[in-house]
Amino acid sequence: MPIAFTIGFPSVVYILVYNPEWLQVVPQRIFHGMNTFVFLAIPFFILAGEIMSESGITDRIVRFTDSLVGHVRGGLAQVNVVSSMLFAGISGAALSDVAALGSVFVPAMKKSGYDGKFAAAITATSSIQGAIIPPSIIVVLYGAVMGVSVGALFAAGIVPGVLIGLTDCLIVGFKARARGYPRKAGGFSVSELGLSFVRAFPALLLPLIILGGIVGGIVTPTEAAAVAVLYGLIVGIFFLRTFSFEAAIRVSRETILKSATLFIIIAFANIFSWVLARENVPQLIGEYVFGWTENVYLILFVVNVILLFVGTWLETGAAIILLAPIFGPALVELGIHPVHLGMVMIVNLVIGLVTPPFGIVLYATSTISGCEMEEIAREALPYILFDIFVLLLITYVPAVTLFLPEKMGLI
């Protein structure tokens, strides 16, 4: 079954068994689950990313990163990682990153002499930055569910996202030297870097517009998402002149499908949350987990283990909607800042996207590359281990995530 129905089906069975009259609650909870103003930002951010991708801005980002790091050993792989970091500021989702960049880099890396499984692994693991670096769809979900400032969460995601990108670059560097992967002929060129930066500047400016508008109090997150759409249209139609009426039809269709898929999950997850609340499941889980010890560090470790496991098989949005109300209140009572907790949960869950047995990004890159998922997973293991190191860093050093929001006056 699709994940939405997997969540909704047992909820309806519960209602039928215990009290069929409660069925009237189902449509109410479905509507209530989606009827949150900040959720309007989700289709707008998806649409903005689709517009920028359709306008060909991806190619300009690739050229800029190629001129920046393409001259080093394993340069094309480094370009892959840095492009993911920059594209994260447009797409807001790991799968969008894989779809847009994977189809570009995996064939190019194979042609340049890189192993197919290596190309697929770095494409998969670097893509998770898309769900951490702002704007991020899963961050909007967490902010809405927990009542936390989305702007503060956006700011909190910058450092963890960049750290994951830098660790990926570090591993690529070691593997490239060990395996003798090629570097770009011609070396580093300041003039080429400057020209490619100017060409990519419209795309690089988008995250700054979004975050700057929110931090400056000019726009709400939802309004910032709408501004991102308008900006994308202006860039695509007037600046790049690559966005056509046919493209508008395609991006509208993709946005509707992706938004509807996510909102169906949100709707049914709300019914499931209602059932859990009636049975006091959040309180029972909280008492069980937190009854083991009063040591907050040990509790955070246990929560990390649970979330890493859940992230391997449950869609990230559904996991946030289901688990944030369970763990959030208890951890906040223990003194964990909700913004810090949000980044811990999000990083945990997105690592699951590239972790066997059900990592959805692994399946996506397997389809693009033609490599077996098991091969990609083995090649991706060092990246996953370093991602977990970053996760532990942000878990036990809250300043890593809270520094920027505090400096920006968001918390």
What are the key terms here?
single chain, 411 residues, mainly alpha, 19 helices, 78% helix, globular
Give the number of DSSP strands. Answer: 0
* Category by helix and strand content: mainly alpha
Q: Average the pLDDT over all residues and give the rounded result.
A: 86
Radius of gyration: 21 Å
Order of helices and strands: HHHHHHHHHHHHHHHHHHH
Major β-sheet profile: none
- Helical segment count: 19
Q: Summarize the amount of helix as a percent range.
A: over 70%
Strand percent estimate: under 5%
Separation of the first and last Cα atoms: 41 Å
> What is the global morphology?
globular
* pLDDT < 50 runs, ≥5 residues: none
Provide structural commentary:
The protein contains 19 helices and no strands. The longest helix has 34 residues, at 245-278. Helix 7 (116-127) packs antiparallel against helix 17 (360-369), helix 9 (150-179) crosses helix 19 (399-407) and helix 10 (190-215) packs antiparallel against helix 11. With 411 residues, the protein is an all-alpha fold. It has helices at residues 3-18, 25-34, 41-54, 57-69, 75-91, 94-111, 116-127, 137-146, 150-179, 190-215, 221-239, 245-278, 281-290, 296-311, 316-333, 338-351, 360-369, 373-396, 399-407.
Task: List the topology elements.
Layout: H1 3-18, H2 25-34, H3 41-54, H4 57-69, H5 75-91, H6 94-111, H7 116-127, H8 137-146, H9 150-179, H10 190-215, H11 221-239, H12 245-278, H13 281-290, H14 296-311, H15 316-333, H16 338-351, H17 360-369, H18 373-396, H19 399-407
Helix pairs in contact: 1-12, 2-12, 3-11, 3-12, 4-5, 4-10, 5-6, 5-7, 5-9, 5-10, 6-7, 6-17, 7-17, 7-18, 8-15, 8-16, 9-16, 9-18, 9-19, 10-11, 12-15, 13-15, 14-15, 14-16, 15-16, 16-18
